[in-house]
């Protein structure tokens, strides 16, 4: 290389070096920003979910323990009325039946808000109970497959339970499906939750782009706070498949 | 730096290709264009070496001109599979069509098929860097896991680094076109691309490791 070429080559090397430094700076700042943003996002969702669950738990407890007890006391008092009039007896029997219905409904609402089975007997039993109740109430053919014992933190159990509730609710409201299958398997350090329905499906990417809706956002948020990943495969006419991979 | 050493360094893409072939059946289909791309890179490195050894310089230039089009097409297909063009096939085909026309105009009319199509290389390098930056930004906003475990991150980073230096290289060569420069100068200039290529090949190998699995858990039970 002559002197002119050497000078030119040095200039090129300087440009390459500057571009390299800018690229490095760009990447480092982006990574730092992404990490901070991710942490803040997770903290925010966690706080929202915690508040929601606490409130649900409080309402469930108030409904079950206070209103339930009050209604039981009212029923006891009504039944203690001593009357010989057949008309009055019929009114008392009717009122008692109404109170029984209200107590049953309250228990159902309270159970939906915070299932006792989930807290006392764990996730697997709670899902089985929820599936059975939904099957009886709606007529949707539901199948739950889980051949392993699930031992998770209560917070994760609640989140997984809510995810299943949301998917079943979406299937009933929007999918027009006759069949829904839910499977949970634990492989190594991951819990895989998979659901599939034979409903009308939807264009997932178009839905997410336009307006993902509260249900889909809820699923995504709960997967995120558990450090997991959610995937949805759905096309019009081909049903909907959800997969969640959650670290345990 | 000898030609043999340069060739050996360029073969560093073989790590990514081997990992890609081993994982091919298990990975997400959206990454298939990337596996095709790195396999093509390996093939091109070998063919280029063979053409150079046999002194077929004209064939080498024609081959590299054709390769630029194949490279752009595969990477654009990759970005389309990642949802860059809003998964709109019409936009993807239009972009691809526009660049095929640009390639034809630059390679056949502005320059000739036996001259390196530097103008097209500059144009498509810009486009690929823009595609990568857009995908990179989208990923930073939407990705909720560890970014280092995201294959898109490594691939976009690799494309940004390589094509930025490739842009500088092509711009310099275009400036020097028609001027007489020594072989040492040209060899030194080529070193920049050789080293950036080596770095990017390593990034691609890391990327292939982190390509996500297919989401086909449903095959374990049927409706």
Secondary-structure blueprint of this entry?
The complex is a heterodimer of chains A (248) and B (223).
Chain A: H1 3-79, H2 86-113, H3 116-121, H4 123-138, E1 141-145, H5 154-175, E2 179-187, E3 190-197, H6 204-210, H7 213-225, E4 229-234, E5 240-247
Chain B: H1 3-10, H2 13-23, H3 32-53, H4 57-81, H5 89-110, H6 118-142, H7 151-176, H8 183-209
Helix pairs in contact in B: 2-3, 2-8, 3-4, 4-5, 4-6, 6-7, 7-8
How helical, in percent, are the residues of chain A?
A: 55-70%
Overall mean pLDDT of chain B stands at 88
Give me the number of helical elements of chain B. 8
Query: Would you give the CATH topology of chain B?
Result: Rhopdopsin 7-helix transmembrane proteins
Number of domains as seen in the coordinates of chain A: 2
Give the overall form of chain B.
globular
Beta fraction of chain A: 5-15%
Please give the count of helices of chain A. Answer: 7
H and E order of chain B = HHHHHHHH
Assembly state: heterodimer
- Class of the largest domain in chain A in CATH? Alpha Beta
If you had to describe this structure to a student in words, what would you say it looks like?
The complex is a heterodimer of chains A (248) and B (223). Chain A folds into 2 domains: 1-114, no CATH class; 123-247, Histidine kinase-like ATPase, C-terminal domain (Heat Shock Protein 90). Chain A has 7 helices and 5 strands. Chain A has helices at 3-79, 86-113, 116-121, 123-138, 154-175, 204-210, 213-225; strands at residues 141-145, 179-187, 190-197, 229-234, 240-247. Chain A has a 5-stranded mixed beta sheet with strand order 1-2-3-5-4, covered by helices on one side. In chain A, a hairpin with a 2-residue loop joins β2 and β3. In chain A, α1 packs across α7 (213-225) and α5 runs antiparallel to α7. The longest helix of chain A is centred in the first third of the chain and has 77 residues, at 3-79. Chain A is elongated, with a radius of gyration of 28 Å. The N and C termini of chain A lie far apart (62 Å). The model of chain A has no long low-confidence stretch (mean pLDDT 85). Chain B is an all-alpha fold. Chain B has a single domain (3-214), classed as Up-down Bundle (Rhopdopsin 7-helix transmembrane proteins). Helix content of chain B is 74%, strand content 0%. Chain B has helices spanning 3-10, 13-23, 32-53, 57-81, 89-110, 118-142, 151-176, 183-209. Chain A binds chain B through residues 1-2, 5, 8-9, 12-13, 15-16, 19, 23, 27, 30-31, 33-35, 37-38, 41-42, 145, 179, 181, 183, 185, 192, 194, 196, 198, 205, 209, 224, 227, 229, 231, 233, 239, 241, 243, and chain B through 83, 86-87, 136, 140-141, 143-145, 147, 157, 160-161, 164-165, 168, 172, 181-182, 184-185, 188-189, 192, 215, 217-218, 220-221, 223.
């Amino acid at each position: 290389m002559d002197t002119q070429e050497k000078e030119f080559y040095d200039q090129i090397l300087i440009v390459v070096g500057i571009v390299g430094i800018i690229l490095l700076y760009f990447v480092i700042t982006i990574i730092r920003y992404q990490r901070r943003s991710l942490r803040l996002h997770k903290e925010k969702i966690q706080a929202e979910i915690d508040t929601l669950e606490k409130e649900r738990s409080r309402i469930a407890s108030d409904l079950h323990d206070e209103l339930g007890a009050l209604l039981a006391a009212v029923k006891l008092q009504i039944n203690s009325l001593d009357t010989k009039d057949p008309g009055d007896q019929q009114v008392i029997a009717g009122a008692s039946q109404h109170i029984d219905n209200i107590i049953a409904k309250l228990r159902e609402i309270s159970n939906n808000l915070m299932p006792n089975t989930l807290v006392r007997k764990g996730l697997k039993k709670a899902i089985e109970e929820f599936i059975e109740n939904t099957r009886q109430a709606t007529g949707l053919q539901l199948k739950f497959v889980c051949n392993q014992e699930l031992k998770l933190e209560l917070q994760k159990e609640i989140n997984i339970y809510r995810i299943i509730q949301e998917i079943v609710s979406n299937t009933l409201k929007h999918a027009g499906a006759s069949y829904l299958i839910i499977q949970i398997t634990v492989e190594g350090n991951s819990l895989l939750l998979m659901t599939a329905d034979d409903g009308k499906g939807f264009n997932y990417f178009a839905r997410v782009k336009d307006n993902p809706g509260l249900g889909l956002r809820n699923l995504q948020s709960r997967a995120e706070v558990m450090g997991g990943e959610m995937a949805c495969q759905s096309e019009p006419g081909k049903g909907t498949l959800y997969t969640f991979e959650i670290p345990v | 730096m000898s030609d043999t050493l340069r060739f050996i360094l360029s073969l560093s893409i073989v790590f990514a290709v081997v990992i890609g072939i081993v994982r091919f059946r298990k990975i997400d289909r959206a990454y298939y264009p990337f596996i095709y791309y790195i396999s093509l890179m390996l093939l091109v490195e070998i063919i280029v070496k063979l053409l150079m050894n046999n002194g077929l310089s004209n064939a080498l230039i024609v081959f590299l001109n054709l390769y630029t089009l194949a490279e752009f097409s595969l990477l654009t297909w990759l970005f389309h599979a990642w949802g860059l063009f809003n998964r709109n096939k019409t936009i993807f085909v239009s972009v691809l069509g526009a660049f095929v026309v640009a390639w034809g105009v630059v390679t056949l009319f502005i320059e000739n098929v036996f001259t390196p199509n530097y103008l097209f290389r500059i144009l498509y390098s810009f486009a690929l860097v823009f595609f990568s930056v857009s995908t990179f930004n989208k990923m930073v906003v939407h990705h909720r896991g560890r970014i280092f475990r995201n294959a898109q991150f490594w691939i976009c980073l690799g494309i940004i680094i390589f094509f930025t230096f490739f842009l500088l290289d092509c711009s310099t060569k275009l400036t020097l076109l028609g001027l007489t420069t020594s072989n040492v100068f040209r060899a030194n200039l080529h070193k920049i691309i050789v080293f950036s290529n080596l770095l990017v090949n390593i990034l691609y190998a890391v990327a292939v490791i982190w390509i996500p699995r297919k989401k086909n858990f449903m095959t374990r039970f049927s409706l």
